[in-house]
Amino acid sequence: MNPTRHAQHCDDLTEALAAFRSSCSVLHRWGGELAGRLGGGARLLVAGNGGSAAQAQHLTAELVGRYREDRPPFSALALHADTSSTTAIANDYGVQEVFARQTCAHGRPGDVLMLLSTSGASANLLSAAAEARRIGMTVWALTGPAPNPLEAACDEALCVAAPASATVQELHLVAVHMLCEAFDQVCEERASVSRRPSPSPSPVAVERGAL
After folding, report:
1. Which residues pair with 78 in a beta bridge?
2. Contact 101, 93 (CB under 8 A)
3. How far is CA 17 from CA 7, 58, 83, 96, in A?
4. Three-state SS across the chain?
5. How far is CA 201 from the centre of its chain?
6. Per residue in 52-107, pLDDT tens?
7. Burial level of 163, CB count in 10 A (0-12/13-18/19+)?
């Protein structure tokens, strides 16, 4: 056995994580914007294939449930999780339409569609991105190395510079958690403001109002 070879996975992750740190500001901004939109009644739609589908569902679970501290639930849907709709659409319209048709059904102007793909080239995600932009949704993506077609099809993309799909997916999970942390931070800040008592009018103001 070669210990160095078995540690290569960790070495690849460490190297990619160092480059990934520059993405922190993007995730913080996304989390804040998402908190504002979902807090105002918008919803998040998320989609991915294979391992990326699992990551997508992880994100929606954190938002509908909770990430760390208790807070109200927010509307977030993982499109692949509705297996009956997904298989029916694939059977009747083709696999390329499984996410686009659901985006058309559930998406509204002002909503956010987040797409996860290690390759950045999945046809069904590209179709969903086009449909979302037609509707007036904002489209974000987590992908593998740039450039890639999905990056070009979205409003904004965070592209992980790592050659292995496994490493990309691992950093996508980091991105999901950082996004949720920023989301919760903004939610807590807004809740703190709403809990503050309204300032009492000064005696002078009360007296002037009585005159």
Report:
1. 46
2. yes
3. 15, 20, 34, 32
4. CCHHHHCHHHHHHHHHHHHHHHHHHHHHHHHHHHHHHHHCCCCEEEEECCHHHHHHHHHHHHHHCCCCCCCCCCCEEEHHHCHHHHHHHHHHHCHHHHHHHHHHHHCCCCCEEEEEECCCCCHHHHHHHHHHHHHCCEEEEEECCCCCHHHHHCCEEEECCCCCHHHHHHHHHHHHHHHHHHHHHHHHHHHHHHHCCCCCCCHHHHHHHHC
5. 43
6. 999 999 999 999 999 999 999 999 999 999 999 999 999 999 999 999 999 999 99
7. exposed
Give the whole-angstrom CA distance, residue 168 versus residue 116. 10
Quote the CA–CA distance of 73 and 38 in Å, as a whole number: 10
Q: Which residue has the tokens 């102007």?
A: 109
- The values of phi and psi at residue 157, to 5°, are -135, 145
CA distance 76 to 74: 6
Give pLDDT tens digits for 165-206.
999 999 999 999 999 999 999 999 988 887 666 666 655 555
Residue type, 75: S
Q: What is the 3-state secondary structure (H, E, C) of 79-131?
A: HHHCHHHHHHHHHHHCHHHHHHHHHHHHCCCCCEEEEEECCCCCHHHHHHHHH
- Strand pairing category for 112-117 and 138-143: parallel
C-alpha 2/C-alpha 22 separation (Å) is: 33
